[in-house]
Structure formats: C-alpha cells, structure tokens
Amino acid sequence: MDSPTVRRILEIGGIVAGLILIAFGAVTLYLSFDGRSTVQDNLSNEFIEGSADMNPEQMKKDIEEVILPNQKLIAQEREKAGLPPIEFTPVSAPSCDVADETIDSGTEARCFSQYLRLHQLRDTKGLTYSQLGKYVAKKDAPSAKTDFAGGTDDYFSAEIDAKTNQPVDNPKRDKWVQVTALSSALNLAYTADQIALFGMMVAVALLLTGVGLLILAIGVLHRGNEKAAATT
What pLDDT is stored for residue 216 in this prediction? Predict the structure, then answer.
C-alpha cells in the first residue's frame, strides 16, 4: 500500500473519529446539564431552607457550649456509675454557610445535611443513634441503666405506655432515623450533582479531542495528500 493511500485512510479515519468524539461530547454535555438541572429543580421543589444558626460561627459556639460539654458530662457520669467509657463521634463546624438560604444545589444540600446532623447531636447530648437507649427511661431509673440522655435499653427501667403496656420508644432515637433518611437523600443529591459536573468535564475533554483530531486530519494529513498529489 503506497504512502498517499495510507495518508488518505488516516485522514478519513481521523475525520470520522473526530466527528464521533464531538457527537459523544455534545450528548454527554447535554445529559450532564440536564442531570444537574434535575437535581436543582427537585431540591427547589422541596422548599428546604437553612435555619438561622446554620453558619460556622454559630455552630462553633453550639459545639463548644452545648455538644462538647454534654459529651464530657456523660463521660463523667458513666465513670461515676462504674460503666466503661464510650467513644464519642467527632464534631466540628462545617465551613459552609446556608443560614436562611433556600437549598437548591447539591453543594448546599450536603452543607445542610452536615448542620442537620449537628442539630441532632445537640439534642441527644452528643450521642449517636446506636448510643441512645431504645426506650424512654423512668425518672427514677438507676443511672447505670440509662444512656444519661433520657433513654435506656433496660425493659424494667423504661416508661410503660398505659394503653399498650409496652415500653415507650425513645423519640430521640426515632428522630435519628428521620435525620439519617433526609441526610442520605441530600447527600445523594450532592453525589448526583458532582457526577453531573464530572460529566461536563468529560464532555469538554471529548469535544476538545474530537476537534483536535479534525484539525490533525484536515490540517495536516489532508494538506500532506495535496502536496503529495501536486508532486506527482
């Protein structure tokens, strides 16, 4: 196979490959924009708004004045009761700020979920779902039988519902389930938003590669074929 024929095949192949990459890039870009728009629209339709304390300054204050002191107090009470120490979940204020803002983007959704978790820790004295008692503890329940946050796992130390004659479920623990469900949905929105952004970058890369192949095929190989034809 002579050299002009090879260059012609490479030229046609380069043009076809370039056009395919540009087409894929355009479709990927459209799908990414559409996916991100869907995430934002769905978030907007939920009408979620950050509370006034969802800013780093206020949350740092709450952590230092409420959550950490409560965790320390529980640790001390457990030690007095002769119970083994427990490991508390780390707490720190997010760097983002969604105070009084409508949550309509993946980044804001993730930020809101971080504050939501800290709100729950504030209500549970720094205990997580697994560290809370299943039931509401009696007022006179032995401290060693409680979680030191109003809950207990001990049936005989629990409040009894007069209607069902069963222990009363701990509402703080039930709320953790709700918070986790909402946080998971918000974090999923954030993940989808980031995937859409990644898709945009891939789309741009495909478009640039496709344009580069077209330039190579038309600007270099085609001119080379023209020169070769002119010399024969």
Answer: 85
Instruction: Round to whole Å and give the CA distance between 60 and 57.
Output: 5
135 residue type, one letter: Y
Q: How far apart are CA 13 and CA 40, in angstroms?
A: 40
What does the alpha-carbon distance between residue 169 and residue 159 come to, in Å, rounded to a whole number? Answer: 9
- Rounded Cα distance between 111 and 115, Å, is 7
pTM listed for this prediction: 0.85
Tens-place pLDDT, residues 44-73? 999 999 999 999 999 999 999 999 999 999
Look at residues 61, 77, 57 and name the one whose alpha carbon lies nearest to residue 150.
77
Residue 170, amino acid: N
With a cut of 60, say whether residue 224 has pLDDT above it.
Answer: no
How far apart, in whole angstroms, are the C-alpha atoms of residue 160 and residue 138? 9
Name the phi and psi angles at 169, rounded to 5.
-65, 145
